[in-house]
Amino acid sequence: MTRIAIIGGGIGGLTTALTLKQAGFDPEVFEQAPELLEVGAAIAVWPNAMRILDRLGLGQEIRRRGGAIEQVRWLDFRGTLINSSRIPKSETPALALQRADLQSSLLRAWTSPAIHLGKVFRNFQKQQQLVRADFADGSTIDCDLLIGCDGLHSHVREQLLETRAPVYRGYTVWRGTTKVAPRQLEPGTAMEFHGSGQRFGVGPVGLNRIGWWASANETLTSAGHSGDHQGLVGSIETSPSDHQDELLTLFAGWYAPILELIAGTPAASIVKTPALDRPATKEWGQGPVTLLGDAVHPTTPNLGQGGCMAIEDAVVLARCLQKYGPRHEALRAYERLRYSRTRVVTGYSRFYGSVGQWQQPAAVRLRGALLSLVPQVVTQRLLRMIFAYDAYAVNV
Questions:
Q1: pLDDT beneath 70, residues of the chain
Q2: N or C, which end of the chain has less CB nearby within 10 Å?
Q3: Count of CB atoms within 10 A of residue 170's CB?
């Protein structure tokens, strides 16, 4: 029996376990947390990921828990409409839901008991035909293939590729969900408000909840940090500071429902993180080891594709292993097939975020003018380019 170890039990790791199980393998998941409790606010499940969840038998539950997104609107900070577009029609919907809801759905689908909690990965060694993984508690496991799904600051990646920190893109992101529903918000609509170096996004996340995110330009020094991106992440993510008051100050004078949403969100539940990603690399693995999701192609949150691309990765990896067998060649095929897609989407997200964060008055006016002129047919073509991707149809 082929022994496949998955390092990381987040959305990417669990989806990988499910797709490998569907392909006839029996993987084991090793997660550093003592409990599988997903943190964070909402997550977008666009059609490119939703059709995979349908194939895994989770579609009905995700639809029940999530909020459908039928159109997108772009507005200025006062709430004046700039442009809008319908989501391209498809049998597969666009949804958003709480990350915890998606995590629990994946867990319920994983009937195997092979999830090992409290396993903090330290390093691996290649030993003839095997890989030995060492954990902080002193335990070790031997496996034929090792898949690093351990996120943005992946320890598997560190050993494989580099120790450099991810790149900070110059702005901070806050996220939250609330049951406050301002009457000005339309059902089934995602809205993005643009200001000077600041943005605010709103959308339904199911079960009578509204999800929102906010962004603001912030230098590392003004955030109280200097050059240490790892330290920046840890400080922002774990700080018990008053994010709510900070946001109410930053967005004072904006469209009234925005302030209503911020004020109606439990302050302790607001998540604050820097916008980080990494330059694309063609090297994802070596020998019997590969990477998946944020461990290899982390992306800024502007297109809502981070989790979606990890879900895509899982399917293509499973299909390559099913076709080529549990050999190193299967991992290299998976990496080649996924490089171009992830590079393009990550690049578009970075560019969109850069333009969205324009701060100079002339640049803000130019952005509004250009955005207002984009025809709906062009917007839908761009959306289809991302949403129409079918990981089950990729020629492996």
A1: 38-40, 221-241
A2: N
A3: 16
